[in-house]
Amino acid sequence: MDAGRHADPDRPSLLKGLASFVATIAIALGISWFLMTFVIHSYEVPSGSMETTIITGDKVISEKVSYYFRNVEPGDIVTFDDKEIPGRILLKRCIAVGGQTVDLVDGKVYVDGVALSEPYTHGLPSDPFASTLVDIAYPYTVPEGEIWVMGDNRTNSKDSRYFGSVKEKSVTGRVCLVYWPFGDFGVL
């Protein structure tokens, strides 16, 4: 009788199982990385700058796919890199794109001379800030390749009125869904 043949019959299947487990974890991590880098990302909203459209503490999904096929458009709620704090992502509504002129008159936003209908602001005034990060004079023409963004909660939002227009290449996605808490669930 050959002692080597019957000593450990489970060894090959144990190694196969372990290798299969490690490969499954590696594939799951790879898919997760791919999705978060190129398709979607989840964010928790830390401030009230977009209330009542998006509430402080809401968790949202930002999708990246549509901007592979089209540019940012006015009305899109976008995520973008913060100009002041590297690594921080902000979310605001795009009001105007490169080449358009923004003006703030008597608490209203005008784009290319036309007052915007903005029911999502609930009548809050859109006034210029007294103190800004950059020098902004109105009317302001948005440079090509940049966008003008504002929070829906106009009296509680540091936005383009404070930090100026945002480079379109700094946009990381379009907010499309509030998924938590469930009571706030909805497509944007």
What is the count of distinct domains? Answer: 2
User: Per CATH, which architecture of the largest domain?
Assistant: Ribbon
For the record, what is the CATH homologous superfamily label of the largest domain?
Umud Fragment, subunit A
Largest β-sheet summary: 8 strands, antiparallel
The coarse overall form would be elongated
What string, H for helix and E for strand, traces the elements in order? Answer: HHEEEEEEEEEHEEE
Radius of gyration over all CA atoms, rounded: 24 Å
As a percent range, the share of helical residues equals 10-25%
**Tally of contiguous helical segments:** 3
Task: Examine the coordinates and then state which fold CATH places here, giving the name of the CATH topology of the largest domain.
Answer: Umud Fragment, subunit A
Low-confidence stretches: none
Could you say which structural class the secondary elements and strand pairing correspond to?
alpha+beta
By DSSP, the count of extended strands is 12
Strand content: 25-35%
Report on the architecture of this protein.
- With 188 residues, the chain is an alpha+beta fold.
- Helices cover 19% and strands 30% of the residues.
- It has helices at 3-6, 11-38, 160-163; strands at 40-44, 59-63, 77-81, 89-97, 101-105, 108-111, 114-115, 140-141, 146-150, 166-167, 171-180, 186-187.
- The strands form two sheets. Strands 1, 2, 3, 4, 9, 10, 11 and 12 form an eight-stranded antiparallel β-sheet that branches.
- β3 (77-81) and β4 form a beta hairpin.
- It is elongated, with a radius of gyration of 24 Å.
- The relative contact order is 0.19.
- Belongs to the peptidase S26 family.
- It catalyses: Cleavage of hydrophobic, N-terminal signal or leader sequences from secreted and periplasmic proteins.
